[in-house]
Amino acid sequence: MHVFIVxxxxxxxxxxxxxxxxxxxxxxxxVLSLYYHIEINKEAFDKRKIFYSGKKALILMLxxxxxxxxxxxxxxxLAPYLPEVLKEMQDTVTVAMIISTIGIAVCRYIKDAYNxxxxxxxxxxxxxxxxxxxxxx
Length: 137
Hints:
Strand content: under 5%
Order of helices and strands: HHH
Number of helices: 3
Number of strands: 0
């Protein structure tokens, strides 16, 4: 049982590290998107989008933690039957699962943040509406 706890703690530390990277990429995306949409496109601020993003991040982390626990538990239960093969396979599957679940989200948020960054660079300073002088009509 001690081996299972050590393995689970190690895997959960990797999940937390990957989650920190996810939060950084989400933060970059949120900051750049807010600036682009509010400052450049003059859209109204909608705080529901930020809460929705936070909820998605928490659900992603919770789902990943549950998958890690399931993989580690299955590996521990099957260890007596396939001791050496299962240990190597379990580490590989766990790491691949953590990186793929959180990694896909990180790549998406970084891509979105980069696109917002490029849109900000392309934008020009908005001109104030000068109104038409009645004499010039």
